């Protein structure tokens, strides 16, 4: 994939005469260079994803993640969310859940840090992370989502910049949460389905969802609870079956089985008592 000229990590030979650009690159710290290279890998991965080359895109996103400095929480969250999108396409549900969760955790840390700085009256940081937030459109955006929620233009005042940053965080959070909910819903098991329901309920309360995503959320909130209940009943029956087998094994040497015991509910108190049913009658 051809790389835009302004994103080249080193000065091209045909631009050696541009002393200003060269001087700027020379002032980059190793962290700045790593962030620049990470972003280039992400851009290439986005192109591969759009082309349907999900394995190749996943490898590129992993490379970008390895290069990205740890303090760039927003950039790391975008990469983790995009990696989750690749795993969804490859039907690797657990990996999708893990990466989406990592993205959400990173956004929570970033938001908490921003709120702490705001409370302390600190100035908004102007590091590479803030620059990446201004270019937030580089994460994977589904068809229609880019039209429904375009990034805010840069604003001259701090308050507008703060709102734009909050909107960026909320947008990536919604994407990561949609991806985690989908991955959880695709897995079997009561705990996975209940967790998916919780994610979709959280999404339903968000005001920044695209119309298509909101329709999916409402549909899943109708479909998932019965599935979760059925899974719970199935797992409960399996658990009691295993306990019964264990009990029968323990009681067999005494010529008894779990069939000799019956749980009886007291209609007045709602409590249960165990009755023994042997050959000589019933005892409580």
UniProtKB/TrEMBL annotation:
Lineage top rank: taxon: Eukaryota
Annotated membrane-spanning segments are none
**Parts forming coiled coils:** none
Where are the residues of the annotated region Disordered? Answer: 1-39, 115-134, 142-166
| Stored InterPro entries | TPR-like_helical_dom_sf, TPR_domain_protein
Question: Gene3D superfamilies, per this entry?
Answer: Tetratricopeptide repeat domain
Basic and acidic residues bias spans: 1-16, 115-129
Q: Which PANTHER family match?
A: TETRATRICOPEPTIDE REPEAT PROTEIN 1
UniProt-recorded name of the protein = Tetratricopeptide repeat protein 1
**Which species is this record about?**
Trichocladium antarcticum
